[in-house]
Amino acid sequence: MDVALVKPATERATRELFAAARDRLPGSGPVSEARQAAFDDFARRGLPYRRIEEWKYTDLRTLLREIAPLAAAPDQAALASAAKAVTAYVAGDAYKLVLVDGVFAPQLSDQTPETGVEVRALRDILENNDVAARADLLTTTAASDTMISLNTAMATDGIVIDVAENAKLTRPLHIVHIATQSSTAAFTRSLLRLANGAQATLVESFVAAEGAAAYQAHDSVVLWIGDDAGLQHVRLVEDARDAANISTAIVTVGAKATFNSLNLTSGAAVSRYQGFIKFSGEGSHADVNGVNLLNGRQHGDTTLVLDHAVPHCSSNEVFRAVLDDQAHSVFQGKIIVRPDAQKTDGRMMTRALLLSDGAEADNKPELEIFADDVSCGHGATIGALDESLLFYLRARGLSEKEAQALLIQAFVGEAIESVADDGLRDVVIGAAERWLAARG
Amino acid sequence: MPLLEVKDLQVRVEEREILHGLSLTVNKGEVHAIMGPNGSGKSTLSHVIAGKPGYEVTGGQILFKGEDLLEMEPDERAAKGVFLAFQYPVEIPGVATMTFLRTALNAQRKARGESEYSTPNFLKKVREVAASLNIPQDMLRRGINVGFSGGEKKRNEVLQMALFEPSLCILDEMDSGLDIDALRVAADGVNALRSPDRAMVVITHYQRLLNYIVPDVVHVMSKGRVVKSGNKDLALELEASGYAQFEEA
Ligand SMILES: Nc1ncnc2c1ncn2[C@@H]1O[C@H](COP(=O)(O)OP(=O)(O)OP(=O)(O)O)[C@@H](O)[C@H]1O
Ligand SMILES: [Mg+2]
Q: Which residue intervals define the domain ABC transporter in the entry (chain B) (predicted)?
């Protein structure tokens, strides 16, 4: 009875959210229809909660409670404070693409990409009536997930990147998500298409401008990797400690292609990164790694689905969680091997390091194997720092925190070392070091 | 004032008393050897001096340069000049030896209020010391002791000792696992560090090491106590007659 009474009330509140946002959402005709359909799906099912198997460890009805109202379009003050965050977090020679409160900010972004790359704002494409049927930019068939539906309905902007055939980019593309407002939500949808033979690096950062608190970042990125193409993908979730980050990556990997991905989450009170990675061509390889660095009462969830839909592909997942205080880390890894996908090699190894008795790590590996000539495996360990190693370091003059920091870096290094480029690996290590430094 | 004064030290591990009132005085400039049968408590003593957790000191005291060592954290002791070359140095994959050496050296210097080494000065110093101990550079790029042979691990301990320039060096079975040539190189490294301002405590089972590192004083430990002290000839005597005479006591 309670449920029947409560649900329409929540649903009504949710519908008001969409109605209020409506005229800020770009696109008309088929785009609006796609949004409406997606929104109806979300409103009907509501926030995912523990009875939904994929979300059983991350009950958004208790952790998030509600979707915050849409953030206002950034004004001059917002852009100015975002500019400071950009300089603090973006290093090196990356080609910057900045989204402030869910809206592309060309003034903060680099202007001329290398040859072979086309960069556009999602909003421009959706609003441009000359370009027919842009609704497909918002549709995904990869997963039926309510948070993807919500993202489809509400996306205000994003970056659409096309890399030409055989183009080998020399600079990383860096999408920077900056929140400047408090208690509001930003919704972004980005796409990257690598044509056959192309090579690129995509970095995504999620950060807060000074003073931004209790906001929600909702993002989806759709990555298409062509045949013989290669993508290095790095995500750094360094949101404000009371923020929420709900993100999805939908990745399709062509033939003889490589996808090398690392997600590092050290920020946000509540975060979920879900990656749906599908092999659509033979002879490809994916490294899908993750690091959670959590303390306080942070809750961080990484959920990966590796879909081996075709034969002769290999995937390797390495996940590391370092947990202090009452932090809670979730790793769910599903490997699907379809009936035709012979000679699949799928590996998954997760390790959690608990720095306190109150920390908690959940690990859910799932193998769904429908082919017989495959090699798949998973393993998991959980434990504390080795006292004898700590003592060795302390006997050499390192303080307890310094000794822990070196051992923690070594522990997460096993996930980070798959990033081959030295400069990029340093960017990732920089994020880990910021977390370690904040521990004091 | 003695550099190290251990007075009537009583130590328990997991409810069992291992050291039963051990006393030892070491002055600056001296080299002491400690010999004794397996299980007599030699490593326990070295661990308690270095500050390893898990030992309960139930009586006695340890003074280092007149200060109460037992009140200090292990890293404070290191910064004040206590160095233990471990009997079993641990392997730490993923922490590059160079990074570790620099972090440790600068942590000690910072604790003493000294300026940190610049990278070029640090590298120069490590290279010199490594070369004198026949330690190839590529070993220093690996994780701490990872893939090191037993002898290489011991030489890495001597390398750290030379780098940190402690005033008290405790060498716990530095000679175990070393071949004759490596033993000579390591012993030369140790001898090079002998100085009027520094003392060494060399724990060993074999008189042979003491031909290379000649001690001023030799102590025999048995069942958690120093049962006899003498000059270097005591080591030769032990080599000939064994520990049986002390076990009775
Ligand atoms: N952590 C521990 N738990 C229980 N017993 C211990 C522990 N550490 C040492 N002991 C015991 O204390 C005694 C002394 O050990 P210690 O390692 O100090 O001897 P040692 O003189 O160094 O011997 P060796 O010559 O074999 O190196 C032994 O009986 C040993 O079993
Ligand atoms: Mg011993």
A: 4-248
